[in-house]
Design goal:
Blueprint: E1 5-11, E2 14-19, H1 25-36, E3 41-47, E4 52-57, H2 64-78, H3 104-129, H4 134-155, H5 157-160
Antiparallel strand pairs: 1-2, 2-4, 3-4
Length: 162
């Protein structure tokens, strides 16, 4: 399965670690404590919501490859792997999406936007062509537009009421 925490960015004086275990307080604080014991580490900036940890270190004291090697060694010993963890993983609730698959909310909103564009185009076309009973079709496509707009506004109601 690989290491639960990995180095995703490194520039002289700064490294970024990322991993799901950094979202959990106990493994993150254990890793922070161990990182502060390394020579040259000057500051740590955790971001639990993003699952990342920025490590600032004295670049005059060691090079980037040296610090990466120290941290990789520490990551392997300080952060328990899921296989060695005493806690059982949470059961999958079944509402995980495949990578690249949009949420139901986004898919419904996309359909409503397409419906709005289609009904607006049809309504305008009916007014230009004026077939027999054109007022009925103009009104029907107008109501279709209003229905799709209602769905769209329902999906984005939280953003409207800020």
């Amino acid at each position: 399965m690989g290491t639960p925490v990995s180095i995703v960015s490194s520039v002289p004086g700064r490294l970024r670690l990322k991993g799901e275990l950094l979202r959990q307080e106990t493994p993150r604080t254990r890793l922070e404590r161990d990182l502060l014991t390394l020579d040259g580490v000057t500051d740590l900036r955790p971001n639990p919501r993003a699952g990342s940890l920025i490590v600032h270190y004295d670049r005059a004291g060691c090079t980037v490859p040296e610090m990466e090697a120290r941290i990789r060694h520490l990551i392997g010993s300080a952060v328990p792997s899921p296989a060695r963890s005493s806690k059982k993983p949470a059961p999958d609730s079944g509402n995980r999406r495949r990578p690249g698959q949009r949420s139901l909310r986004m898919r419904v909103n996309r359909v409503s936007k397409i419906g709005m564009l289609t009904s607006l185009a049809a309504s305008l076309a009916v007014t230009q062509v004026r077939p027999r009973g054109w007022k009925y079709w103009h009104a029907s496509t107008g109501w279709m537009f209003v229905a799709c707009l209602g769905i769209h506004l329902l999906v984005y109601r939280r953003h409207l009421l800020r």
